[in-house]
């Protein structure tokens, strides 16, 4: 179980893996996530599903190396197995025929937005996707997004590819020109989702975000992932991961993402000391 | 064989005290606190048993153990016989011997209890189970012809494990589904190592697997597969997914970074072994002054875990008084011995943070006790204007759990009450959908390991009856 069937390096620090998990692939819907453990002594990390293949029983995950666990995951090869892989968790995206919708993806959030855009298009929507990253090399899954959308706009902060600027600038122009936009989905770094919500607020267009809180079990048991939505405490794992972005208490959410910063740093440093040939070497390639 | 001693002599003897790790030493480690009886101590204690003609102790045992029988076997130094006797009805003896509130159950009914010296039944049970494990003694495998019917059990905590084992002993094909990566439920994520070593839980689960029970981990019933799907593939179901969702006080500051639910705090430490960070990857935050809100067993576990993780001060903050404390006496005693500070009649109303959002204190109100409430306990009433501050830098909410809806919402026809717990028939644990049974905390709310064990036994018997009389979910 949980064998890595296919591995691709999308960027120096971003990887894509197809994992054999037939039960999860059978039930998964766009917007849901999985929790995996690389090894027995590992931690449980949530990742939003980037794609799935029900016939072959595969789930695709896309992740960026940001610390010890993601690095350990990145050095596994095709044929290797994960220690644990559970899902699908969380609620699915509410897919309907809304008319015209916009899906915005930033960084690895591009991968998360992919199945949502595809399902929205299949449901009959006109799907305009805006994907963005710092520079050209960080733009991932462009071909997939192109297929999953009616229209695709790419942005880079440094102008090395597509439109120069942030996804939110393009989104604002779009909302100015196209009054038909009924709903927006935004997935990416917390700050990008927050700014997207600020961008759409004056236009009163409902904006759904997918929150990537710190979790343990992912099934509603621990409350690690709690967030305040419209003044009420909700669990991202069972009430989410998607919420109305206008109602999210962003300051609290972003603060809670830093809960284990010192421990994560320490763990990463010890790991690098013991694995001098691993990512530390590779990250500087 | 040890001697039977005259009744008069038995009455004179005191209960053999349990050897324990010194409090000052144990607050720096996660090793088990009680060390267990030696062979001699066990025999000496067992000899006290009056072997009553009508043994009252038995009515207090949800696991239905023939207590005088196994105690007598200890006197006879037939420890294997004692183990096999317990195993006839209790599939988790090393666990129940450790975590049962015996003072509320078997020992409460012991005749010798009138002089406050009941037979230490739990300690004897633990001795026997530990002896068997150390001497590689195993229970007998089911000798019946395997039956065709398949039963799925949702959740591998004490209720699920018990039901699985009892049904496997009857020859049924049993599959146990567990959402986490390790089976055991609350026994592995909730109860700390110093109270229930995980290697022992693992061992007793392996013994149940020996009976033919198939354990599937990483499988979230309700998410990976709906209960309705399972109902198509199995003849009967037992839902024992636990209470699950942590409750919060709903006071300001509760989502600050240094505030935990007891579930999260204990899961990180116990299941994920955050106490061994960074050898294990899961981190845990620990303050210098930790406040645990609540006074149940889970609160005691949290306060004592905080000490072991390095908190200099560990407080229990409880809105009622000492009399109403729901935790086992032994747990309170151990916590006190270890230096946990109890603040009774204290109600937190606000958790305070500094500019960076770090917890710096907890504002509380003093309480007084009024007339008894619906629980029969005197209702705590806030004294207005009694606000005061407790200086703490971490808070653990241990005020109970509510029903996790994940399983229930995928089970059509299975009714829940207004709190989300499954409605069952008391004597059979049958839910409102024929062929589906439920027990443990997802029926009772937050209860004990042993009551879950009891539910598992009752359900197993009812499932056997249901299937024996031709019932099956697959027949629709």
The main sheet of chain A orders its strands as: 11-10-9-8-12-13-16
Strand content of chain B: 15-25%
Compute the CA-based radius of gyration of chain B. Answer: 23 Å
Largest interface: A-B, 43 and 40 residues
Low-confidence stretches of chain B: none
Please bin the fraction of helical residues of chain A. 25-40%
Distance between the termini of chain A: 33 Å
Mean model confidence by pLDDT of chain B: 94
Summarize the structure.
The complex is a heterodimer of chains A (285) and B (476). By secondary structure, chain A is an alpha/beta fold.
Describe this structure in words.
The complex is a heterodimer of chains A (285) and B (476). Chain A is of the alpha/beta class. Chain A is built from 10 helices and 16 strands. In chain A, α4 (142-148) links the parallel β9 and β10 (151-156). A 5-stranded parallel beta sheet of chain B has the order 3-2-1-4-16, sandwiched between helices. Chain B has a 5-stranded parallel beta sheet with strand order 6-14-7-8-9. The longest helix of chain B is centred in the last third of the chain and has 20 residues, at 449-468.
Chart the SSEs and their pairings.
The complex is a heterodimer of chains A (285) and B (476).
Chain A: E1 4-11, E2 14-20, H1 22-27, E3 33-37, E4 45-48, E5 51-53, E6 58-64, H2 68-74, E7 84-89, E8 100-106, H3 109-122, E9 126-133, H4 142-148, E10 151-156, E11 163-164, H5 167-177, E12 181-187, H6 190-200, E13 206-210, E14 226-229, E15 232-235, H7 236-239, E16 242-244, H8 250-256, H9 261-274, H10 279-283
Parallel strand pairs in A: 8-9, 8-12, 9-10, 10-11, 12-13
Antiparallel strand pairs in A: 1-2, 2-6, 3-4, 3-7, 5-6, 13-16, 14-15
Helix pairs in contact in A: 3-4, 5-6
Chain B: H1 7-12, H2 23-26, H3 39-46, H4 67-75, H5 79-87, H6 93-99, H7 106-109, H8 121-134, E1 150-154, H9 158-169, E2 173-177, H10 186-189, H11 198-210, E3 214-216, H12 227-233, E4 236-239, E5 244-246, E6 259-261, H13 262-271, E7 289-293, H14 297-308, E8 313-317, H15 329-337, E9 341-343, E10 346-353, E11 359-372, E12 378-382, E13 388-390, E14 394-397, E15 401-403, E16 436-438, H16 441-444, H17 449-468
Parallel strand pairs in B: 1-2, 1-4, 2-3, 4-16, 6-14, 7-8, 7-14, 8-9
Antiparallel strand pairs in B: 5-15, 10-11, 11-12, 11-13
